[in-house]
Amino acid sequence: MDIPAKARAVIIGGGVVGCSIAYHLGKLGWKDVVLLERKQLTCGTTWHAAGLIAQLRATQNMTRLAKYSQELYFGLEEETGVATGFKRNGSVTVALTEERMEELRRSAAMARAFGVEIDEIGPSDIQSRYPGLKVDDAVGGVWLPKDGQADPVNITQALAKGARNLGVKIIQGVKVTDIHQADGRATGVMTDQGPIEADYVVNAGGMWAREIGAKAGVAVPLHACEHFYIVTEGIDGLTPNLPVLRVPDECAYYKEDAGKILLG
Ligand SMILES: Cc1cc2nc3c(=O)[nH]c(=O)nc-3n(C[C@H](O)[C@H](O)[C@H](O)COP(=O)(O)OP(=O)(O)OC[C@H]3O[C@@H](n4cnc5c(N)ncnc54)[C@H](O)[C@@H]3O)c2cc1C
After folding, report:
1. Is residue 172 lining ligand 1, measured as CB closer than 6 Å?
2. Mutate which of 21, 65, 169, 208 for ligand 1 pocket (most atoms within 8 A of beta carbon)
3. pLDDT per position as a tens digit, 4-41
4. Closest residue (by CA) to atom 2 of ligand 1?
5. CA angle (227, 67, 209) in 5-degree steps
6. Given this model, what pLDDT does residue 255 score?
7. Average pLDDT, the chain
8. β-bridge mates for residue 186, sequence order
9. What is the 8-class DSSP label of residue 233?
10. What domains are defined for the chain?
């Protein structure tokens, strides 16, 4: 697809964030929105995500955003026809110390204030929700029935399809090389295939956002950090559709997927 000479908004980056912005601008009725991805959609961090959809967050805005995302992803497959792998299998977060339990209670109170369904549960309830888990050192935990998991690549493709259906142009294989400015604001971008004039330039470059921001003289305080997970072989007798399990005292999360466990 050729790049246009002009657009109302240019979004830089075709990860889940850029595609979500494109989708939401389309929903708001914006015309002439262009998303530029230097390689292909999801090729950045999005490709690696474990796909956990979690609503228990540290701040009010993150809680509201996470609750909204969970609700959006629930209906996205039906809206776009792209299978997202979304499962509302719930999540259990376990505290191994009184201090952690106190922290969970505080987060739960904030989540409840924003309408997130969340229950405090004891060790025996944890075990009934997660059969096979050893709970003799657990103080307690919280259960979020509407948390879940999804395939991050397909969620992004679904958002991209929804955006395209709303008239957004998504162009892959185009790298933004500079940001044009006048009177202290962005007026467009230079790409490896020529310039685009724009009223708005959106930096959705993920871990590259810092270098993209620097092209416009903006310091984006982002630094990439390492995060990895392992996936086991198939485990005989594993209960299907286990909830997502988090044990923050051990810095660990567990996701059941097709008879295997992803541990991150
Ligand atoms: C191992 C791992 C597990 C994770 N698990 C989870 C999880 O379970 N749940 C969760 O919510 N989050 C998880 N995350 C975090 C999540 O993956 C990221 O927050 C999310 O993918 C970031 O999306 P993004 O769109 O901001 O960035 P990216 O997906 O990195 O997208 C940025 C895009 O910008 C493009 N780009 C960069 N520079 C330019 C340029 N100059 N011109 C054009 N395009 C450009 C890149 O090619 C890239 O595609 C995990 C992350 C990792 C690493």
Report:
1. no
2. 208
3. 999 999 999 999 999 999 999 999 999 999 999 999 99
4. 49
5. 45
6. 96
7. 96
8. 181
9. P
10. 6-50+153-215 (3.50.50.60), 52-150+225-263 (3.30.9.10)
